[in-house]
Amino acid sequence: MGHKMHRDHGGDIDTAATRYGTGAWIDLSTGINRRPWPVTALTDPALQALPTGAATERLTRVAADWFGCDPRRVLPVAGASAAIQLIPRLLPRGRAAVLSPSYNEHAASLRAAEWQVEDASGISDMAGAELAVVVNPNNPDGREWHPATLVDLASRVGHLIVDESFADPRPDLSIATAAPVNTIVLRSFGKFWGLAGLRLGFVIADPDLLSRIADAAGPWSVNGPALEIAAAAMSDRAWADDAVVYHAEAGLRLDRMTLRAGWRPAGGTHLFRLYETPDARAAQDQLARAHIWTRRFPYSDTWLRLGIPGARHEWDRLADALRLP
Question: How far apart are alpha carbons 203 and 209 in whole angstroms?
Fold first, then answer.
C-alpha cells in the first residue's frame, strides 16, 4: 500500500487549535487576502445547474483582460494547485529544475510524476533542464525576476512553468502578456481576491497544451459559483486598486511592528511578509498563544512568514502578542 507523504503547508488552523486551544483565531499563515472581495447573492443557475459554457467563456474573457493576454491562451482550472499536480503528468518526463526555496508542491508533484527533480539556487543553474519552475514573485522570500529574464530562460529549457500566484498586484512582473510558446503561466484567484475556498485558478499557455489540460481535468472541473463570483470580482477594478494600495501600506506597517519586536525583514510580497527571527519556533509559539497562527519552514530555524492583518482589531491583537508598547 502506498504511503501518503505529509506536505508542509500554511492554513492548518485545525492543527493550531488542537495544540493551543479553540477560539477566535487570526490565520496569518497563508498569504490569502484577509479583506476578501465581497460576495453578494448568487444567481440560482450558478447553484442549481452544471456550469455552463457561457459562464466559462465569460470568466475566460474577463481573466484574459486582467492578465493582458489572448483569451484563447487562458484556461480556468480548479485552483492553481490542481494544475501543479496535473501538468507534470502531461509533459515528457526528464530533469526538472525548481528554483528553491519555493512553494513545496512544485517539487513534490514533479517527484510524484516520476521526474528527476533538482533544486536550483539561481536562474543560471536551470539551463538545459527539460522543465524549469520559477515562482514569481517567489514564495516565501518574495524574490522577483523581470519578464525578460524569464523569456531568456525559456529559450534555454524544454518547458518553463512560471507560477504567478502572488503576481496580481504586480503586472510589471507578469510574463502572461508575452509568454513564449513553451511557457506555462499559473495564476491563483483565491489569494489576491481572498476567496481561496472557491478553488479557482488559471493556466495561461499555448492553446494546444491547454486543450490537453482541459481533457485531463475532465468536464465541469470548475464549479458554477466560482465562475460567477470570479467573473464579477475580476471585473471590479476599483476594488483591486484599493486592495493593492492597502496591502502596500500594510506591509510596511507590519515591517515596522516586527522590527520593534526584534525581527528583521527578509522579503515578501503584497500579501505576506517574511522575517528573520531569533528563533522561529519560539516566535510562532508566542503568537499562537494569542491565537494568531503564522508559518514557519522545516528548512529554516529563523524564518517566519506572516500574512497581512485585515482589520484594526487584528492589528491590535498582533501588537499585544508581540508585546509592543
Answer: 10
